[in-house]
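Q&A log
Question type: sequence-to-structure
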Amino acid sequence: MRLRTVFGAVALAVWRGQNPADGCWGCPIRQWWGLTPHQQLSPALEDRLAYFATVTGSYEAAAKLSAKVGCPVEDSTIQVLVQRLGAKAEAQTQERLEKAPVEKCPARAPTPLAVLMVDGFQVRFRGPGWGKRRTTQPRRGMA
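Response status: OK
Response body:
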């Protein structure tokens, strides 16, 4: 098995074969490391390349940056990686949006106190008689 890492290409001699329990073919070390069946890049290299693509803003610039730090990769490889990670993120977002958000305290009664933002500072609601010298209406203060 060949794997491209941050430090260069690594060739590993690994066991592969058929699982006697379920009859599926596979490579135990790939499953242990969380690699897909045909994955050629290590997870650390994938993280680094995805970060480079995010920081630089283009695949070509990300490929140049990765070559400067010692792990040359083609821009098409970075594009495929970003597309795969983007599809995974989109699937997670759609899964999250299908579920309704759960309230933290659903049995709590509404409170009569309100905090308002007026002219850039927070002011409590003070009632109709607030701020006048003489009023017949009750003033509600800091209760």
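Response note: Strands lie at 2-5, 8-11, 17-18, 25-26, 115-118, 121-124.
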